[in-house]
Structure formats: C-alpha cells, structure tokens
## 1
Amino acid sequence: MQPEPDHELPADAGSTRDEPDPLLVMYSMPGHLIRRAKQKTTLAFAPITRRFNLTPIQYVVLKTISIRPGVDQAELGDIVGLDTSTTGQVAARLEQRSLIVRRPDGRRQRVEASAEGLALLEQLGPMLEEIQDEVVQPLTAKERQQLLRLLSKMLGVATLYYRPKPRGRRRAPRDPDAAG
C-alpha cells in the first residue's frame, strides 16, 4: 500500500497512475528517508564539528554528560543509544581532550564534563541550535513537533513530544467460559 502524497505529483513523476516511478516507491521507504535525513543533518553539522574537532556523537555524549553529571558509562550508552564498547571509546577520546573526567566508582565508571567541556558546549550551543533550525526549515512549527513526536515514538524514547505508554503487568484475557 502506497501512502497518499500530501500534494500533487509532477506530471513526469511516473509513467501512469497505476504504475508509479520506482524512485518514488523507494522514497516511500522509511529507512531510506531516515538515512537521507541523517545525511542532511550530518552534512549541516560537519563544518562546525570539524572546526571544533568534535564528532556529532562526541557532542551528544558530552552534552548528555553535562545534563547528567556523574552518570555511569553504561547508563550513558543507554541514553545515547551506543553499546558499552563504543561508549567507552568515545568517553576515552573526550577524556584525552580534557573535556570530561572519568572516575571509577566500584565496578562503574562515572563521568562528568570538565570546565573545558562545559566551555566548549557553551560555545557550540547557539551554532548547533541554528543548524538544527536550518535542517528542519522546510517544516512548519507544527510539522517539526510532529516529526519529533513520531521519531521519538518510533525509537520508544520519552521526549518533550512523546511519552511511551507505561509497561505494566498485562492481565490475561478473561475466559468467558470460566466459572465466576
């Protein structure tokens, strides 16, 4: 089933109405569109992240650590969607640059942003906010919120725009033939 377009397609968009252009079919695949959106976002962020010698994931990790000082690396990985090994590697690179401090706490590694890390975030904040706005510029404010809500729902993460339904104990369906 093909989704209905929200506007008229150009006359040359497909050979006939019954036979859509294969490229249009490809652009109805969520995975392809998400990958393209990631490309657009990465390309927009690249000049700034290069200028500050910081990868996008390093920024996300540093920003998360600044929001949750003392978070342990395992929880940090869960928050940003990285496996334990990758989280450790990213944290090690940030520590080498003196942007974070790692402290052992029993069997855990707790991480905090250093003064240098916080200063870098302060510098980057307005620039990255502007780029975020540029990336979603074609969308109305309502569409931006809808996009964030749908992506959050798809990923199952709570955000300002989406709260997953709580997963409580599910009751077994009542057997209508059971004696009451």
## 2
Amino acid sequence: MLVDFTGTVPEEATAIQCPIEAPLNFTYHTSAGTCSSRISSITRCAEWTRLSFRYQACPENPTKEASGMECIASWQSLGHTFFAARVGNRRGESYRCFIVDQSGTSGRIGISADASCQELTHIGAATTTLNYKQDHKVHPLCDFPDYMHAMGRARHRQTWESIVTGRRNVIQDGSWVSSYKLRNDTVWTCLESRRHEHFTAIRAHVRRGCQTGYQCVQVCKESLVNFGQISLNEYEDCSEMVVDTRDTLVVQGAQEECPLRGRYTSAACQHPLLFLGCNKPDEIQIATECNPVWKGSCRPKYLYGERKEIHKNAKELP
C-alpha cells in the first residue's frame, strides 16, 4: 500500500506485509545511549505481517526488551521507505512510524517517538536509530513425509486438523504452517529428516508466534506427532528426544463409516450410552445420565497393531 501519510496512525488499519526483509541484525542508538557492543535482531513471526524486535542490553545502555509489531501502512517519499506499525501486544498496543534508509543488504531504520509521523521527515529526526545488516534466511533443506502433504498420484495439497487444538495445518515444500482463524500461529521449516523404523525424526526451525528457535519433531505413520521443546540449539540430535507435547492430525473434513455399528450400554445405566452409525453411517452419539447428547462424526482411523483408533469431532446437541 503506497500512501502520502503525514498524520497519525489509523487504529482500524488492516495489517500488511512489512517492507523490510527479516531476519536482520542491528546495533542501536536511543536517548539513553548507544548499544554497539551487542548484536540485536529482527525476526519474522509466524504471522507474515508481524516482526519481532529484540534489543540486547549493553554496558553503555542497560535496556533490554523484546516487542512484536504489526505493519499497517507503507509509503515512499523523497527516496525513503516509510511504514507505520502497531507495537506491543493486544492489551498494551502503541503506534509508531518508521523510516528506512537502505543500501544493498544494510542500512538504517529510524523510529518515531509517538504515533505521529509528521516529525519523522529524515533519519536524524528519529528518537531510536537502528544500524542493520541482513542476516541469513532459513530455507527448507528437506521435506516432511510424503503422506503428510500428498494424496494419491495427483499429489493434491493436504489440509490436516489437529484433534488437540483444532488448528488447520498445511504441509508443502518443506514448510509446515499451523493456523487458526486464518492467522498463522506456528511455522516449521524442515532442516534435517531421518527415517527410523516406526517414525521419521525431523530437526526443524520453528516460529511459534514471535518466538523463534529449533525443535525436534517425530512423525509416525498413524499421523501421531511428538514435539520436543523449542531450544536455541540448531544441531540438536532428534533421534532420541524428550517428548514435550503430542498431537494427532486428521484430514480436514474427512469422514468415514463408523466401525462396530450399533448401540452400546453399561451395566451401571439402564439406557444406551453410545450409538455408532445408527442415524448416519459416519455419526456418533454419546448420551450421559444428565441427558445432554453429544453428536460427532467418525474420522479416518488408523491401525495400531490389532487396535483401531477412532477420532471423533463432537458437539452437544440442543
């Protein structure tokens, strides 16, 4: 979006992609002093419109902070790029304007003192100045298992749903994107993949919100996924990781006929408690003593030895 912007930042503005390419390393100068003995950084968050600024403390400037920002406008003027952004979290947002003076893969970024852009006509008018250099971008070096992102010979892009969080997951070209309500919350980039007998061990770069790091991921053929903790160790051995969380992915929107169709009771109750495929072949109904009925659908099942596992998506009937 290119605009002639000289007023204050509009709070209702829609988020856009920021006009600077992260990741960047920088030193900075503020009214409190210059920090040139430590390297600070700008990284891209999982959501493509957000960036994370991490200011390192220095002996000459003890301030250390991290803040996320969301770009909402950009424009060109007098050979410079300007942009406006919401800074901070949703509860404590403020607004700032930025000026970019770029030369190749390095340059300077100036930040305004408040939400007004009128005084920020040149770098010297900024209250905070960053001297930056482009850092190396993270690119996929491997891919996630084929069955996670392809179906059949046509290799259509697969969309998965987490049965733990309900998040939408798309895996393609070495990247795995988890989103909720059309906003990315986690992005994994495959760096190393090793096949084992019962699972594939993956070392990945991860962006969860505005947190970045590295994470081990174990993917089983039953679409069971184990996650290790996020760490700063780029070369962690993922063959023998400590499981931090688990999830199971099912194909989004997929349903199938329920196995073991019929009505099931318990000796402790007079009435049937579980109905499998009675009204519809793919429908589950669960009754309780308190009388609300939970209705769901059978999802694609996976075979664990001699045990079949059924995933259901349930909701309470009125």
## 3
Amino acid sequence: LADGVRGDSLSAAPQLSTVLVLLLLCVHSLRRLLECLFVSVFSDGAMHLVQYFPHPVGPIVTENGSIKGNLGFIHAFVASFSVIIVSELGDKTFFIAAIMAMRYNRLTVLAGAMLALGFMTCLSVLFGYATTIIPRIYTYYVSTALFAIFGVRMLREGLKMSPDEGQEELEEVQAEIKKKDEELQRSKLANGAPDVEAGAGTTLPQSKWHRLISPIFIQAFTLTFLAEWGDRSQLATIILAAREDPFGVAVGGTIGHCLCTGLAVLGGRMIAQKISVRTVTIIGGIVFLAFALSALFIKPESGL
C-alpha cells in the first residue's frame, strides 16, 4: 500500500510541475501581450506609447520622484488577492478541491484545479482589459457601481444565510462528484479498463502523456472550470482588470486561488467545519463595498 501511495505521488509530481510552468508562461505571456498593446517600437529604436489607450502600463515617475506604476501594481495585487480570498473560501470550487483531494491523489487534484483557475484568471483579465479602449473615467465609475452592487448583494445573502449553508454546499458538491465518479466507472467498464485509482487490476506501462493527464486530472480541471465560469470571483476579476493594473490583478488573483485551493486540498473538510460561510460572505460584502467607497478618495486619473 505504501508503495502504491508513493507511486501515486511520484506520478502526480510531473503534473504539478507542468501546471506551475504553464501558469508562469500564461502570466508572462499576458504581461507581454499587455505591453505590446501599449507600446510600439519604431525603426529608430525609440519606444512610444500608443495614443489610442487611456493610460500606460509602465511606471510613471511623478514630480517628487516616486514611481506611480509600482503603486498601481501593488494596489491591483492587494485588491485582486483579497477579493479572491473572500470569494473562494467556502465556495463551490473550494469544496470540489477538498472532496476530490480526500478521494484521489492530492497533487493530481491540485494540479488540475490550479490549471483551471489560472487559465480562468488570465482569461478574465483579458476580458476586463479589453474594456480599456473605453475612456477610463467611464469604466472606473461603472466598475465602482458594480462593486457596490456586489457588496450589497453579498451582505444581503450573508445576513439571510442559514448557519448550515456550508454543509449544504458540501453535500451538493459531494453528490455531483459521486455522479461524475459513477460515469467514469461506467466508462472504464465499457472500455474494459481496470480501476487503477481504486487499486484494482494491474498497473500497466503508460505513456508519458497518459501519466501526465489522468482521468482524475481532467475531472478536477473540468469541474473547477465549469464551477468558476460566471462565478462571483470571475466577474470581480473582470471588473478589477478594467480599473486596475492588469498584471497586478492577474498575479494577485492567481496567488489567491493558489492559497485557497492549497488549503482546500490539505485540509478542506476540517477548514469547512471551522469557518462560517455566512461570516465569510458578510466579510466579502464589506470588502466589495470598501472598493466601491475608495472611488470617493481616489481619482480615476490617478491610475491606482
């Protein structure tokens, strides 16, 4: 049994390392894409900002010598990170990672979930960044209004939420994963394949790609991606990318997802029993309202 567990960990290690490399490449490619959208290189080698966009990504040195672009990145990073934390703790994607990690190899589940969340974050940032062709003053106040609406809605949901809301969400996700497992088992039986994950049958030599992308990896990716699509955290990421530094939003959101998913994989059931989804929802509403109120103190032209 110990050899089997050790073998599962070793086979899942390439999956996790590959996902980390893919996430780094996605973030790097996103940054390069944004830079290319803002900067054009002319034949004399000089760099000129594209005039069709309202504000540059690169740092701006103010009169007192401070670097404004760095502050914009930090502000976007903190905003994105905090929004993801309050949106994802106790969310459906959190429970998906937690339950699957209790049934299958943790590294495989973590790799599949993180690839889905990282891809979704970069996609959401691109959606939000596409709105920057609109004058910043409009997107700034529209995003502020959306943050206020989200905040009020989360506060209402939190105040009306029952104390057992987290347990109900957990049971719903368990039923969904059980249904997917049954479909996977029927597919294996139809193809005459042994259930390797459950320990049945003999382990046959597999190709490198088959070890890298196992059925559990695909299941974790698919369930997480579908659960995240249209979720509150995705919409919040799009809104943030429309008003903040997009690279900071992408990095903060990805790290926030890494933290939440890592906690879910390591001790999701225990954490779900300790935290109150109602409390987290109320705190999330307060955070969203705080970002909306920040528009009263930060001007759209500041770029922060």
## 4
Amino acid sequence: MKTIELESVIDKLKSVKSEGVIADEKADKAELDAESHAQRDGKTRSTLTLTFMRGFFGMLIFACVFVLIYNWAAVYWIIDLKKSGLVEESTKLNLLEIDKILSIIIGALGTSLGFIIGYYFKEKHS
C-alpha cells in the first residue's frame, strides 16, 4: 500500500516538474517577445523622428531656395514691366521675405516637431 502511494507521489512530483519546465519555457518565450516588441517600438519611434526632422529641415531649405529664386525672377519681371511702360503694375509685384516664410513654416510645424522629439526622448530615457 505504501509503495503505491509513494509511486503516485513520485508521479505527481514528475508531472509538476515537467509542468514547471513547460511554464518556464513559455515565460522565456513571452519575455523574448516583449523585448522584441520593445526594440521594434524603439525603431519605429526613431524612424518617425528622423523622417519628420528630415522633412522639416528639408522644407526650411526648400523655402530659402524658393524665396531666392522667386525674388530673383520677380526682379526681372519688375524690370521687364517697367521697360514695357507698365510702371503701376510693376509696383503691385511684391517680393517675398524669408523671415515671414520661415515663420509660417516653423509656426505650422514647430509644435509637431517638439512633440515628436519629446516623444522619442521620453521613451528613450524611460
């Protein structure tokens, strides 16, 4: 009788050990999945931040070049209008001011840039 009880206890012990091993394997897999997800999330944040920053500064550079080219062309338009005798029309043609154009772009996108950079560094330091 005692041998049967001892064998059943040993069988239960073995089953508990095997269940423990299975639980450990599942926990390890879940931990690896969580680490993988955290790395992907960090890469996504990095990609988002870098893409937005490149676009933002690209727009600033484009605005500077556009103002330069537009003003260069506008000066020639004004000269041509004056040569054609259209002095009044030439005064209606306005030149662009770089500070106003940059102010508009920074005002429109600067807040978003600050949010995205803050979001990126908040997660990086957490």
